[in-house]
Amino acid sequence: MHDDHDHDHHDHDHDHHHDNHYSDMQARVKALETLLTEKGLIDPAAIDAIVETYETKVGPRNGAHVVAKAWSDADFAAWLKRDATAAIASLGFTGRQGEHMRAVFNTPETHNLIVCTLCSCYPWSVLGLPPVWYKAPAYRSRAVIDPRGVLAEFGLALPEEKKIRVWDSTAELRYLVIPERPDGTDGMDEAALASLVSRDAMIGTAIAGSWKVSAAGSSTISAADSPEARP
Amino acid sequence: MNGPHDLGGQMGFGPVAPEKDEPYFHAEWEKRALGITLSCGAFGAWTIDESRHARENIPPADYLAASYYEIWIRGVETLLARHGFATREELLSGHNLQEGAAPKRVLKAEMVPGALARGGPCDRPVETTPRFAVGETVRTKNFNPATHTRLPRYARARTGVVETVQGAFVFPDDNAHGRGENPQWLYTVVFGGGEIWGEGADPSLTVSIDAWESYLERL
Fold it and tell me: What region holds the Nitrile hydratase beta subunit-like N-terminal domain (chain B) (predicted)?
């Protein structure tokens, strides 16, 4: 008799029938979730809701919206400098890991870079969940001692005369870098401007993008090619 | 504490590895780890400071070999055991073997949007006035407590300038150990690269930390 069915009769209360080789962490976390659910301490649907929030609702576009508004509205930029928590909250971006916000503005003289050397504090409410590199020892150890070397690994070579200011998030203040507004963006509306702002530009490991040169050699604003930029 | 978490200025971890179009999660279990950690935090049994201390107490070889969400899981398991919600035996087996502590609240799905939107503000009123003023030169203390602190090693016994008085915030060094919130004034203090890293430091570099008042002394 064929024994295909004999090895496959346990622990398959879900849909992934081929998925019976859990990694150690998959097994450990699954056991923990099972235990806590049995004890009535957690609601698996709440976990789904948390994950869905950070996968679909809270992400770097919130931050890009803040930056674009700062670029196009001097009063908002001033408010952001004075009280970033309130200014950002006025756009509806509040909550966990964004309770106390501070916006730091890049200038022609100074480039800002954000790190948390002690854990991985990060402004979730405006940038979503942090990328792996932000949480990893290589970035946390070197951002404060060799920021130019770190930036080079992101492909960002700053002019030598540009000063670098590193902000170590050692308390509950969460930092958002407001990059410099790119040249040639004068006529752009907020949505188009927001499309120029990457997550990394708001951490300080990139600058905001602007012009790109088309194959024909004529300059176009890259945002105009982006579906996000269209009303 | 001088744990494996205190990474500023350490060497040997290799280059940063940015990943193009990085996904939020690299495995299903990372999603569950995030949700479990936040759900357990909602019990109200421990503070974010105690939670950070649980993570920094992971033995260095384990901490540095672990991915970030693994660090979270190790931390939350410690807290669940410490606060009586699950025994070590239950955590190892994954089965409910005995009744444990009851939390102040269990986070249900319908509570998630409100809980995430509220977050956990840490600013608190204090009756004192700030001891240090903007523009003042201050020195960070030199201490090496076995307990939790948010003054990184690289920034101890260093001279910097108070740039901003940020307001008063819960003091993590006490709050992590159940000694109360004991809020203190918090200052952004800026150091020159040379003051921290000495000879060979990038002359264009400044580094700032947010330092609680008791971390600082007058020169």
Answer: 1-104
